[in-house]
From TrEMBL:
Transmembrane segments: none annotated. Keywords: Cell outer membrane, Membrane, Receptor, Signal, TonB box. It comes from Rheinheimera maricola. This is TonB-dependent receptor. InterPro entries: Beta-barrel_TonB, Beta-barrel_TonB_sf, Plug_dom, Plug_dom_sf, TonB_rcpt_bac. Gene3D superfamilies: TonB-dependent receptor, beta-barrel domain, TonB-dependent receptor, plug domain. The keyword Membrane applies. The keyword Signal applies. PANTHER family: PLUG DOMAIN-CONTAINING PROTEIN (PTHR40980), TONB-DEPENDENT RECEPTOR-LIKE BETA-BARREL DOMAIN-CONTAINING PROTEIN (PTHR40980:SF3). Residues 469-931 form the TonB-dependent receptor-like beta-barrel domain. Belongs to the TonB-dependent receptor family. Pfam families: Plug (PF07715), TonB_dep_Rec_b-barrel (PF00593). It is found in: Cell outer membrane.
Length: 964
C-alpha cells in the first residue's frame, strides 16, 4: 500500500460516522501487521497507521461487516473491481462460488439443473471470463476454458474478486473480466487457532414429483487455521462435502430443421424435429479439499505452498418420451403457424416418414475432478526491492458417460417376430412460455408392457483432460520519484495440454425393430408405471425401465464396453476379428485428439502516486506482451495415398483405416496489450476512476482441435472442412471504463460506464481459394485422374471456424448502492440494503436458424438488464437477509440439448438466509434457495416457439456452525 493510499485511508476512516469501516480496516491492518513482514513502505507509514488506532470504533458484525470489507477492497484497489469478503462466504456459505459471485454488480449466472454454474460478466458469456485460484490459471472440466464455478465450494474459498478492468501484472485472458479466487492464508488469520464445523440438512420440495427422485441431502464442512513458532509458521486445511438431489420436470422443444408447404401456398414452412417431456433425477456429490502451509523464517522472506482438490460426481436419469414428428414426409393436418414456423397441428406417420414416439430411459454419469497446486516464494531483497517466484500446476478431468435406452411401441410385444406399430398420430399445440397441449393415439400403450419393447441401447463416453504447468517470476522496486511510486516487471511461461477422447457402443435401432439385433421383451420386474403430476399431470403415463435388469437380460454375457472405433460401412477400413455393427462411427476417432498451447508473457508496469491540479492521482500504467504457440493433432483425409502420408491407423477395436495421414497443425502469434488505470481522489469521500486497455480471450480450448477433412477432386481442386481450427486467434477488444464512487457514512454509491470495442468473433465461415500448403496441409502439386491423365492441383474452398473480423461494441452502465442504517433506533441499527443495476447493449449480433427462418440475436450471455438486491438485518446475534437476482432475456445453450442455442426468458431468483448466534462459538441457521421455485424458460427467437420449460424446486437448508 503506497503512502497516498494509506493517508487517504486514515482520512476516510475518520469521516465515517458509524466508524464501522474503521473497525473492519483496523482489524485487517492489525492482522496483516502480526501475520506478515512489513514492506519498507509499510514501515515508513507507522505514524500514519497509528492514527487508525486512535479512532473510536463500533463493532459491526454479520453480513454488514462483510460488506464493509468488500467496500474497503473496492475503494483502495487500483482497478475497477468487485470483491466478496471472507465473512460473506464463511457466515452463511452459498452452495458454490457461482452463487456467491452473482451477488456482485454486473454479474449474472446461467443455471444448469437449477444451480448456478457459469457466470456472465457485463453481458459476456463464460467463454470470455478468465479465472485464477491464488493468482494461478485454472483449467476446466467444461471441455472449454471457462471454469465451472459450482466445482468450487464456497466454504473453502477465503475471498473472491472480479476485475472488470485489467492491469499488466494480471494474467491475460478475460475480455469480460477476470475472477480471482483465494484460499486461506493462515498467517493472516486474526486468531491464533480457529476450527470451524458447518453441518446442514437439505430438502427439495419437488423431488416427490419425480419417481426415484431423492428428497434429502446434506452439506458438511470443517476447517482449521493455526499459527505456530511465534507466528512464523501457519497451517490451514479444510474439507467440504455436498450431497444433494438433482431433480427437474421438463418440456424441451427441438430445433426447426425441416421444411414443408403446409398450406399449399407454394412456400415452405419450418417444422420442428419434435419435443421431449421428461422427469429428471439423480444425485450430486462434491468433495472439496484445501490445504496451505505458510512459513516466514524472518521478516523479509515468505514461502507458501497450497493445494486444492475438488471431485464432483453426478449421476442422473432422464425418463419420459421423445416425440419425432417425422419431417416433411409426414402427413400434417390442421397446421397452426407462427409466421413461417409450425407451432401446432396433427402429424401422422406415412410409409416414407419416421413419425414416432420413443420411450426414453437415459442414464448419465459425469465424474469431474479439479486439482490445483502451487508454491510461492516472496523475498524482500532490500527495503525497496521485492522478488517473487511461483510454480503451479492445474489439472482437470471430466468423464461424462451418456447411456441412452430407447423403447418403441410394438403391435404385439409377445409375437415371435415383433412388428413396429406404425399407426402413429401426434397432436400438439405450443403455448408460448407455458406448457403445451399434446395428444397421442398410442398414449395407452406407453405404459403397457405388452406393447413397449426396448429397441436400442447406446453408450457415448466423452472424456476430457486438461492441464497447465506454469512458472512465474515478478519483481518490484519502490522508487523515490514524484510521479512513479514503484515499478513492477515479470515474466510467465505456461504449457497447457488438452485431450479429448470419444468412444461408442451401439446396439439396435431407435426407429425400428432389427432382425439382426432383436428388441428386448420387458418383464414386470423390469418396469414401473410412472405418472406425471403437478404442472405436468395432463401428460400420458409411461414405463420407467430398470436399466440394470433390462441390460442384464439383453446382454447375458455382459454389456460390451464402448470403444474408439472407425466402425463399419467405410471402404477404407480393413476388418478385424472385432466387427462392430451399426452405422459408421469414425466420428469417435476423428473427434478425438490433443491440443497444445505454450505461452510466454512478460510485462512492465509503473504504479503511480502524484497530484494533478491539487488532486491526488494513483493507479498504474503498463504493457503486457504475450507470445502463443498453439497446435493440435490432425488426421487429414488423403484417400489412402501413401505419397501424401497415409498410414495404417488401428482403432481400439482392431480395425485398420488406411485413408488418413496423422500430423500436427498450428501457428505462433504475438499480442501486445497496453493497459492504464487512473484513480483521482476528488475528496476524502469520493473518487473517479478511468481505465483503458487492450484485452484478449483465447478461443475455447476444444475449438483449437483439428478435425479436418481434405479432398481432391478429379480435376485437381483441393477442398476441405473443419468444425474447429488450430489456427483460431484470440478474441480481442479495446475497452474503456469510467466510474464515480462516493463513500457515504456506513455505505457507498458507485456509478460506472463501460465500452468494449470487440474486434472479432469466432464464426463458421467458408474461405475461397484457401492456401492449403501454406497452412501446413500435406497436399500434392499434381494428381493422376481416373483416366490416367496428370493434373495440376489448385486451391478451392475451406469451410472452418475463423475469426471473422466483424466485431462491434458492447457498452453499458452500472449503478451500485450499499447502506447500513445505523442511525435508526437500536433494534433497527443493523438494517441495511445492498443493490445494483446493470444496463448493457451491443451492436454485435448472431444469426440463428434453429427456429426456422434466420433471425438476428445477441451473442451468448448478454442480458440488457441485470439487477441484484439484498435486504439484511443484524440484531443481538440474529442475522437475516433476502437476496434477489434478476436478469432480462438472454441467449444461451438450451438445457439438456448441447449446441442448441435459444433465447432464454427473464428470470428472478430469490434466496433467503437467516442465522442466530447461540453464543460466541455456536450458531444455527436456516435458508431457502430459489424461494419462488423460478423455472427456466426458453424459446426459438419468438416466445410462441417454445424451447425449454424446466422446474427445479426449492431447496431448504437447516443446520449449525460451531467455531472455536
Amino acid at each position: 500500500m503506497n503512502k497516498f493510499k494509506l493517508s487517504l485511508l486514515t482520512l476516510a476512516m475518520a469521516g465515517v460516522s458509524s466508524l464501522a469501516l474503521a473497525a473492519e480496516q483496523q482489524s485487517a491492518e492489525t492482522t496483516q501487521t502480526s501475520a506478515q513482514p512489513q514492506s519498507a513502505a509499510q514501515q515508513s507509514s507507522t505514524t500514519e497507521a497509528a492514527a487508525v488506532d486512535a479512532v473510536e470504533v463500533i463493532q459491526v458484525r454479520g453480513f454488514a461487516s462483510s460488506l464493509f470489507r468488500s467496500l474497503d477492497a473496492k475503494r483502495f484497489g487500483d482497478t475497477v473491481s468487485e470483491t466478496i469478503s471472507a465473512d460473506d462466504l464463511g457466515a452463511l456459505p452459498d452452495v458454490s462460488m457461482a452463487d456467491a459471485l452473482t451477488r456482485l454488480p454486473g454479474i449474472s449466472a446461467v443455471r444448469t439443473g437449477g444451480q448456478a454454474a457459469e457466470i456472465n460478466i457485463r453481458g459476456m458469456s463464460g467463454g470470455f471470463v478468465f479465472s485464477t485460484l491464488n493468482g494461478r490459471e485454472q483449467v476446466s472440466t467444461s471441455g472449454k476454458r471457462n471454469i465451472e464455478f459450482d466445482q468450487y465450494p464456497s466454504e473453502l474459498i477465503n475471498s473472491a474478486a472480479v476485475y472488470k478492468s485489467p492491469k499488466a501484472s494480471l494474467i491475460e485472458g478475460g475480455v469480460a473480466g477476470t475472477v480471482e479466487l483465494q484460499t486461506a492464508s493462515p498467517l493472516r488469520n486474526e486468531k491464533q487457532h480457529t476450527f470451524t464445523v458447518n453441518a446442514r440438512g437439505m430438502y427439495n420440495d419437488r423431488a416427490n414429483e419425480v419417481p426415484d427422485g431423492v428428497e434429502f441431502g446434506h452439506r458438511f464442512s470443517l476447517s482449521y487455521q493455526g499459527k505456530f513458532f511465534d507466528d512464523t509458521l501457519g497451517f490451514a486445511a479444510g474439507y467440504a462435502r455436498l450431497y444433494q438431489p438433482s431433480v427437474a420436470t421438463q418440456f424441451v422443444g427441438l430445433a426447426y430443421n425441416g421444411q414443408k408447404d403446409t398450406n399449399d401456398d407454394g412456400v415452405n414452412e419450418f417444422i420442428s424435429e419434435g419435443f421431449e417431456i421428461q422427469h429428471k433425477g439423480g444425485e450430486e456429490t462434491r468433495d472439496g479439499y484445501m490445504a496451505a502451509l505458510e512459513w516466514t523464517p524472518h521478516d523479509a522472506f515468505t514461502l507458501k505452498a497450497d493445494a486444492f482438490l475438488s471431485k464432483f460426481d453426478k449421476e442422473a436419469f432422464a425418463r419420459g418420451f421423445r416425440v419425432k414428428f417425422g419431417g416433411p414426409t409426414a402427413a400434417l393436418g390442421n397446421p397452426e403457424l407462427n409466421g413461417s414456423s409450425v407451432i401446432g397441428g396433427t402429424f401422422n406417420r406415412t410409409t416414407s416418414s419416421f413419425t414416432r414416439v420413443e420411450i426414453v430411459n437415459d442414464d448419465n454419469r459425469d465424474y469431474d475432478e479439479v486439482r490445483s497446486f502451487g508454491i510461492n516464494a516472496d523475498w524482500d531483497v532490500s527495503e525497496s526491492v521485492n522478488l517473487s517466484f511461483d510454480v503451479s500446476h492445474s489439472s482437470a478431468k471430466s468423464n461424462f458417460r451418456n447411456g441412452l435406452l430407447w423403447a418403441l411401441v410394438a403391435q404385439d410385444a409377445n409375437a415371435d417376430v415383433p412388428v413396429l406399430d406404425t399407426n402413429v398420430s401426434i397432436s400438439y399445440m405450443l403455448n408460448g412460455l407455458n406448457l403445451p397441449s399434446v395428444g397421442f393415439n398410442q398414449a395407452a400403450a406407453f405404459s403397457d408392457i405388452d406393447k413397449v419393447m426396448v429397441s436400442k441401447y447406446g453408450i457415448y463416453p466423452f472424456v476430457n483432460e486438461d492441464e497447465v504447468n506454469a512458472y512465474r517470476f515478478d519483481a518490484s522496486w519502490l522508487l523515490d520519484m514524484p510521479l512513479v511510486a514503484s515499478l513492477e516487471a515479470g515474466v510467465r511461461y505456461s504449457e497447457r495440454s488438452y485431450k479429448n477422447d470419444r468412444s461408442v457402443f451401439e446396439y439396435g435401432s431407435d426407429g425400428a425393430f432389427l432382425n439382426s439385433q432383436p428388441p428386448l421383451r420387458l418383464t414386470s420386474d423390469m418396469v414401473e408405471v410412472v405418472n406425471f403430476s403437478g404442472d405436468f399431470a395432463t401428460y400420458p403415463s409411461y414405463l420407467a425401465i430398470d436399466l440394470d435388469k433390462a441390460l442384464a437380460a439383453w446382454f447375458p454375457q455382459g454389456i460390451p464396453q464402448p470403444v474408439q472405433t472407425w466402425g463399419t460401412g467405410n471402404p477404407d477400413i480393413l476388418p478385424s476379428q472385432f466387427n462392430p455393427t451399426g452405422p459408421n462411427t469414425n466420428w469417435s476417432v476423428l473427434q478425438s485428439g490433443e491440443v497444445y498451447e505454450d505461452v510466454l508473457a512478460g510485462y512492465v508496469m509503473a504504479n503511480l502516486d502524484a497530484e494533478l491540479f491539487g488532486i491526488p492521482v494513483s493507479g498504474n500504467v503498463g504493457v503486457r506482451v504475450v507470445q502463443t504457440d498453439q497446435s493440435a493433432t490432425d488426421l487429414a483425409y488423403v484417400d489412402g495415398n501413401p505419397l501424401r502420408g497415409a498410414q495404417n491407423i488401428v482403432d481400439d477395436a482392431g480395425l485398420v483405416n488406411t485413408a488418413y495421414a496423422p500430423g500436427i497443425l498450428g501457428e505462433k502469434y504475438t499480442d501486445v496489450l497496453p493497459q492504464l488505470n487512473l484513480n483521482f481522489g476528488i475528496t476524502d469521500e469520493s473518487q473517479i476512476r478511468f481505465a483503458a486497455a487492450k484485452v484478449m480471450s483465447r478461443p475455447p480450448i476444444n475449438r483449437l482441435a483439428s478435425n479436418t477433412s481434405v479432398t481432391i477432386s478429379d480435376d485437381g481442386e483441393i477442398s476441405g472442412s473443419s468444425s474447429n481450427s488450430p489456427f483460431l486467434r484470440p478474441f480481442e477488444a479495446t475497452q474503456y471504463d469510467l466510474s464515480y464512487e462516493y463513500y457515504i457514512p456506513s455505505g457507498a454509491i458507485a456509478f460506472a460506464l463501460f465500452y468494449k470495442d470487440i474486434k472479432s468473433f469466432v464464426n463458421d465461415f467458408t474461405i475461397q481459394q484457401f492456401d492449403f500448403a501454406a497452412a501446413g496441409f500435406d497436399v500434392p502439386t499434381q494428381i493422376i485422374d481416373e483416366d490416367g491423365i496428370p493434373r495440376e492441383t489448385f486451391n478451392g474452398a475451406f469451410s472452418t471456424a475463423v475469426n471473422n473480423g466483424e466485431g462491434g461494441y458492447i457498452r453499458g452502465a452500472e449503478l451500485a448502492f450499499t447502506k447500513v442504517f445505523d442511525s435508526l433506533p437500536e433494534m433497527f441499527s443493523g438494517l441495511g440494503v445492498q443493490g445494483s443495476y446493470s444496463y448493457t447493449e451491443s451492436e454485435v449480433s448472431l444469426i440463428n436458424t434453429l427456429g426456422g427462418a434466420a433471425i438476428e440475436t445477441t451473442f451468448e450471455g448478454l442480458s440488457q438488464d441485470v439487477f441484484t438486491g439484498t435486504v439484511f438485518w443484524n440484531y443481538e446475534g440474529f442475522d437475516a437477509r433476502v437476496s434477489a437476482r434478476y436478469r432480462s432475456p438472454f441467449v444461451s445453450s438450451q438445457v439438456g440439448i448441447d449446441e442448441q442455442i435459444t433465447n432464454f426468458d427473464s428470470e428472478t431468483v430469490i434466496d433467503m438466509q437467516t442465522s442466530y448466534d447461540i453464543n460466541d462459538n455456536f450458531k444455527v441457521l436456516f435458508q431457502v434457495n430459489n424461494l419462488t421455485d423460478e423455472p427456466t424458460k426458453s424459446y426459438f427467437g419468438d416466445k410462441a416457439q417454445t424451447g425449454t420449460i424446466q422446474f427445479f424446486g426449492r431447496q431448504f437448508y437447516l443446520g449449525a456452525v460451531y467455531t472455536f
